[in-house]
């Protein structure tokens, strides 16, 4: 009996498992044997049986030959964990886990994120290992420690890793920029301080940070001037444009959802992390206002 | 917009007192200065409370009747001259709740080029005290660029609301530029004037500002002030290192990025000057 058996371990067993005349018959029993392992076992002439019904048993006396096929994939597979939450794909999974009150299963999560289930499983294994999610029997996600998950994500995947920033000056000030944004019918997403203010009371923002697929174009439409010093508007081009898809409309302006805003603020310079703390407090006190 | 602070509320009360006192002459009065700028562009989003308390009223000598004498009307309403030799500065004493008595001034001003008083300061309006109002350069625009607006009390228990002429953005800009240029030294007063100019540039609709400015340049009585205003704008705000940009940045203090203010002021100035050249 073994808990697992990988193809590369088969030769070590083989000597003891060979079907030899006159020797006691031996049988490899493992909860699950992959196709590769089964092939290797058959090559060395070993008898095997797994709990999904894959079996190959040949005994000469009494004469017995069984060969059946069970599952090709391990039903209880605990996948290899991903190494970190860097990258666009991990971000999609994190945002869903934070935003959804009821965590869906791996397949639904994968479908919602537009990712393959294998990748999502590896991310979940990482989060499980870090204690950021609790899983029950059969891997169902039972709870998500979303505040810590957001902080961990922001740590490992700061805003600068998730996009490319360009700095500008609106000589009329950022309130004027916001008024012009409200007139636009284009994809963009206000985040950081100016968005935090839309959810929880904070001080007036010194900077306006906006996600946009095309910074140059948006800057032109808003009549912003490129500025290396004295900037008041930051346009960030996302590595994953999916970030632009979800927003909350307030006074005609598209604001990033709170979870996105919090992660962006946490990894922003200046007072960003402090503003993030206020926003996270509000989020913890009013989960019904933003979790769906 | 944040709630106006106590001082601003008092300043509005005193301004309403003065406007009421001038009732018979109201058709010849135009509100200028910081209070007019606040009415025009709001308190804007600049991280600073409005700290102007004085009210500036321009009198049009061509429309002003000889009676009743201004000084009588003002004195009846509780105003008194700032000092024995002050010209055009009228004081109202106000008790700020829980604090000491405050003296809040209202200035009566006459555009120098249309003033009957050809001396340096006293406007010498016929029928009125020689020192009741003073001559000021650069205010001519207020006589031709203004709109009737409602001025209302900011106090819950005070229902007063008065309609009066409020100088337009072009007239206000030209007047402030003259004032900034006339003031020597680098005291706080100058910072405030520079900030007011920045507020106008930032908060006004440019197409409207340009149209009004061009109109003033085409009227004989305001042409000189408008032309001088343009030169002053170029000199005081034309580059990020110009003195006006520096003063505006300083007046906003540590709450804002001085480089942002300097660059914004210079960009807006150049944009306006370009439009005025067309």
Tell me what you see in this structure.
By secondary structure, chain A is an alpha+beta fold. Chain A folds into three domains: 7-68, no CATH class; 88-156, Orthogonal Bundle (Arc Repressor Mutant, subunit A), CATH 1.10.10.10; 159-289, Beta Polymerase, domain 2, CATH 3.30.460. Chain A has helices at 10-17, 35-43, 88-99, 106-113, 117-129, 146-156, 159-162, 174-181, 192-199, 215-221, 258-266, 272-285, and strands at 28-30, 48-50, 55-59, 64-68, 133-135, 141-144, 163-169, 189-191, 208-211, 225-226, 233-238, 248-250, 253-255. Chain B is α/β, with parallel strands linked by helices and 278 residues long. Chain B has two domains: 6-167, no CATH class; 169-277, no CATH class. Chain B has helices at residues 6-21, 33-41, 70-76, 169-182, 188-203, 206-217, 220-237, 243-252, 258-277, and strands spanning 29-32, 55-59, 80-81, 89-95, 101-111, 134-136, 146-152, 161-167. In chain B, strands 1, 2, 3, 4, 5, 6, 7 and 8 form an eight-stranded mixed sheet that branches. In chain B, a hairpin with an 8-residue loop joins strand 7 and strand 8 (161-167). In chain B, helix 7 (220-237) packs antiparallel against helix 9 (258-277). The longest helix of chain B has 20 residues, at 258-277. The radius of gyration of chain B is 18 Å and the shape is globular. The chains are: A alpha+beta (292), B alpha/beta (278). At the A-B interface, helix 8 of A face helix 9 of B.
